[in-house]
Prior knowledge:
By secondary structure, the chain is mostly helical. The chain has one domain. It has 4 helices and 2 strands; from the N terminus they run H-H-E-H-H-E.
Amino acid sequence: MGCLGNVLWFICGGFLSGLSWCISGCLWCITIVGIPIGMQCFKFAALSFFPFGKEVTYGGGAGSLLLNILWMIISGIPLALESALFGILMCITIVGIPFGLQHFKIAKLALMPFGAEVY
């Protein structure tokens, strides 16, 4: 399911989701202070383009918490809402449920990207 799922995902909405992460990363990289946050966006854009077969684990400390709060205020909520909306639309049909679950995984990641690792 991994390879086929990723190809179907990319065609049916993964491209838009990954593009959103890339645009957010480019906007963050405009400032020197935002470069670490932008690089994190590019890392998660790769996950957003091809999410099947990958797992996300959450961890981190106080630094991650502060960056997550800053991220959520500026970029996290719009990206999370986009993925949640796509997830709801995908879950309307039985065939789209696996894709909807991947969108929900990315929506959670959009709210708390710092301290998260992709395996």
